[in-house]
Write a structure and sequence with these properties.
Helix content of chain B: 25-40%
Oligomer: heterodimer
Order of helices and strands of chain A: EEEHEEHEHHHHHEHEHEEHHHEE
CATH topology of chain B: Rossmann fold
Structural class of chain A: alpha/beta
Radius of gyration of chain A: 21 Å
Number of helices of chain B: 12
Number of domains of chain A: 1
Helix content of chain A: 25-40%
Number of strands of chain B: 12
Shape of chain B: globular
CATH superfamily of chain A: P-loop containing nucleotide triphosphate hydrolases
Structural class of chain B: alpha/beta
Largest sheet of chain A: 8 strands, mixed
Number of domains of chain B: 1
Distance between the termini of chain B: 26 Å
Order of helices and strands of chain B: EEEHEEHEHHHEHEHEEHHHHEEH
Strand order of the largest sheet of chain B: 6-7-8-3-9-10-12-11
Number of helices of chain A: 12
Strand content of chain A: 15-25%
CATH architecture of chain A: 3-Layer(aba) Sandwich
Strand content of chain B: 15-25%
Largest interface: A-B, 50 and 44 residues
Chain lengths: 331, 329
């Protein structure tokens, strides 16, 4: 384990009880977030990327159960009692979501929602809290901050609301900020602003950031390290340049090869990953990507490939040992 | 312009009355589509891009007369559509169909796949016999990659990508010439998106279709479109052939949009991480004078405040910018 690990996740599994039986959303997940780094987590819907971080934050839905271990600064935080969790959340770690509107109370002014955080976690007076909130809004480049505090969430644009959420999350100077699809609902020009802001805040405050998204372009811009999720499992993990330049998992190849890209010549057809993601209610004995994989061999159907090192802090979960590059635009 | 155009749109306005803010809540006019003109040639794919609020969805609905237009002209094969009543419009609906963004939300959950795809046939070709209708439904299902056995299934049994195939089949079953696709792949997962994009391109080649492809994702539009129209606050900023637009955008707004598209390559992504514009979209209820883009434009000057730029031709491209020559030089 790395000496500078801020958050260590060991053997994390998340399971949901449903009317149709259990759904295995996250399976045997091991990862760490280091101080001050940006860890990107990429995956499609149902890959377990959001549930992983909701479990870390203790925010799983009522029918969800998390097992394993999550340590923040060396102390176990998974399945803490509600009181202890409430003290931790929004203090040492905070989370922002795709749609800031649903994370805010539409009936309270932005100022009320922000000062509440400081009154609760830092026992500041309303007046002191207000001054800190003005400073926080200014740090996310919201002009005229004092006046904006008395406005309601609906009076802000989508990009401004996400700035307010980031400012609120940073009020207590958390060590870890988890961003779940923070720019997915925003226009590209606003997305670029929010990503630049996150990068600036990381450099200024040394906050570690987890960036959860389906968009490999967003990850490429900000992340130091990247982990790729498929069917509730990590399939590859590497430093950002080696993940994009020397990926070792067929699914990562598929994700990178099947998106239209502005930095490459236009091709007549896109490469595709055939089929669709698996049903999480069933637990195959073999690799979950096997039915869609271009490199499948007999062992892939029988044995789950473990996540192992392939050198240079590069991990992957795949039986196939040969060269990738087979994924061409299909005829 | 040309006599061969499949669709000709001239000075199209779509305005909505809305209540303004404040105590008196005065009636204001939202100009969702403002003086838009363009042609669509048979067999081409016209991409329509822009950020939220640019009017691209309103425009696509107005073209199909799903919402009323305020002024201007929309002609299909020379026939003016904006003055037709419902009954006169009906035979023309066979020629123009639409594919929507959210496949599951646009399919009736109580109808089977077969019923959903047959519905436009019943409405638009009521005299078609039952047997022929079923043949047509099955043939269309096969064209979009659905299995005949799925005809009695319900939409909720399908994944997003499969549901979008149903939406495409419903549009194609009446054999339209023009299909307006409004963000047809935006709601789909990465690994499914490319399957549906390839399908749309195959169908176009196979059936000789013409598409208006509306999307906010400029990389997807580059892949699928022959020409691209860029909208901003309801107005056309630029209409240009695909390769020219992506290689050398003439409008400052097109340049801003392209510079903001994330590139899935960390080396390039970090190199181009320049200071992005901090300004936000102006309210569509209080558009700036002159050029709509001037409040965010690095080239704006007094002329841009005073005078609205018209869409004009420069090197075979159409641009609405007073400073387009500077960019072209």
């Amino acid at each position: 384990m790395a000496a500078d690990a801020l958050l260590e996740v060991r053997n994390l599994s998340v399971r949901f009880a449903t009317g149709d039986g259990p759904v295995y959303a996250v399976n045997d997940l091991d990862l760490e977030v280091r101080r001050g780094e940006v860890l990107g987590m990429v995956g499609e819907s149902g890959s377990g990327k959001s549930q992983t971080w909701l479990a870390v934050m203790g925010l799983l839905a009522k029918n969800g159960r998390a097992e394993g271990s999550v340590c923040l600064g060396g102390k176990e935080i998974l399945n803490l009692p509600q009181r202890a969790l409430t003290r931790l959340r929004g203090d040492r770690m905070a989370m922002i979501f795709q749609d800031p509107m649903t994370a805010m109370n539409p009936f309270l002014t932005v100022g009320r929602q922000m000062t509440e955080v400081l009154e609760w976690h830092r026992h500041l007076s309303r007046r002191e809290a207000r001054a800190r909130c003005v400073a926080a809004l200014e740090s996310v480049h919201i002009s005229d901050a004092a006046r904006r505090l008395s406005m309601y969430p609906h009076e802000f644009s989508g990009g401004m609301r996400q700035r307010v959420m980031i400012a609120t999350a940073l009020l207590t100077e958390p060590e870890l900020l988890i961003c779940d699809e923070p720019t997915t609902a925003l226009d590209v020009t606003v997305q670029a602003q929010i990503l630049a802001l996150l990068d600036e805040l990381r450099q200024r405050f040394g906050t570690a950031i987890v960036l959860v998204t389906h968009d490999l372009g967003v990850i490429a811009q900000l992340a130091d390290r990247v982990t790729v999720m498929y069917a509730g499992r990590q399939v590859e993990q590497a430093e950002v340049h080696s993940l994009y330049g020397a990926y070792r998992h067929p699914y990562t190849e598929g994700l990178l090869r099947s998106v239209p890209r502005l930095d490459e010549p236009r091709s007549a057809r896109l490469a595709t990953i055939p089929g669709r993601p698996p049903d999480l209610a069933s637990r195959p004995a073999g690799c979950p990507f096997e039915p869609r994989c271009a490199y499948v061999t007999e062992i892939c159907r029988q044995q789950m490939p473990p996540l192992v090192s392939v050198g240079d802090a590069h991990l992957r979960a795949c039986h196939y040992d040969g060269a990738l590059g087979r994924l061409e635009p299909d005829a | 312009m040309s006599e061969s155009a499949l669709l000709e749109v001239r000075d199209l306005d779509v305005h909505f009355p809305v209540r303004g803010p404040g105590l008196l809540r005065p009636m204001l006019t939202l100009r969702a589509v403002d003086q838009v003109s363009f042609d669509v040639q048979p067999g081409e794919v016209l991409g329509v891009v822009g950020e939220s609020g640019c009017g691209k969805s309103t425009l696509s609905r107005a073209l199909l007369r799903l919402i009323p237009t305020t002024a201007g002209s929309v002609r299909l094969h020379g026939v003016e559509l904006t003055t037709l009543d419902r009954a006169a419009m009906r035979p023309l609906r066979r020629s123009m169909q639409m594919v929507f963004q959210d496949p599951l939300a646009s399919l009736d959950p109580r109808m089977t796949v077969g019923e959903i795809i047959a519905e436009p046939l019943k409405a638009l070709l009521p005299r078609m016999g039952r047997a022929e209708r079923e043949q047509r439904v099955l043939r269309t299902m096969q064209q979009v990659g659905l299995l005949p056995a799925q005809i009695n299934r319900y939409p909720h049994e399908f994944s997003g990508g499969q549901a979008q195939r149903i939406g495409i089949a419903r549009a194609l079953v009446v054999e339209p010439e023009l299909v307006v696709c409004d963000e047809p792949v935006s709601a789909l997962d990465v690994s499914i998106k490319s399957q549906v994009i390839n399908l749309l391109l195959d169908l176009r080649a196979e059936l000789g279709l013409t598409y208006i492809f509306v999307a906010h994702d400029l990389a997807t539009v580059r892949h699928i479109a022959d020409r691209v129209m860029v909208l901003y606050l309801g107005r056309v900023m630029e209409i240009t052939d695909r390769d020219a637009l992506y290689a050398r955008p003439l409008h400052p707004y097109t340049r801003l949009l392209l510079s903001a598209v994330p590139i899935p390559d960390p080396t390039i992504a970090r190199r181009r991480r320049a200071a992005p514009s901090r300004d936000e979209l102006p309210s569509p209820l209080a558009l700036p004078s002159g050029c709509a883009f001037r409040t965010r434009c690095p080239l704006a000057d007094a002329r841009c405040v005073a005078e609205r730029p018209i869409l004009r031709e420069i090197d075979g491209r159409y641009v609405a910018c007073h400073h387009a020559e500077a960019a072209a030089a």
